[in-house]
Amino acid sequence: MKNKKIMATKILSEKTRTTQVEAIAKEGEYEYQTTYSYNENGITRLQCCIIQKAKTDLGEQTVHAGYMALEGDSKSMNFPTGIDMVPHISMFENILKEVNEGLTTK
Questions:
Q1: Which domain of life is it from (predicted)?
Q2: Does pTM surpass 0.85?
């Protein structure tokens, strides 16, 4: 008996298609590992993990220095105690601006 493909009735209707991008920004000893998603309506999500890199006698060490995200119209940020948040928030705003400007030129 031959295998027959049975075509089932589709139950999903595609509403939108999203593109995901991974990028990195560097500022001094910090890396901003960024992932963002967008569709035809603009940016839908942006996540930014902040990594602090330092050279030591043991080689390069990395430390988690914070996390920032945009989900829809909501921003959230999480930093370890003792981290100066101000420069990171400024960098986050610059990243958002650059992503949004890039999307308007597409």
A1: Viruses
A2: no
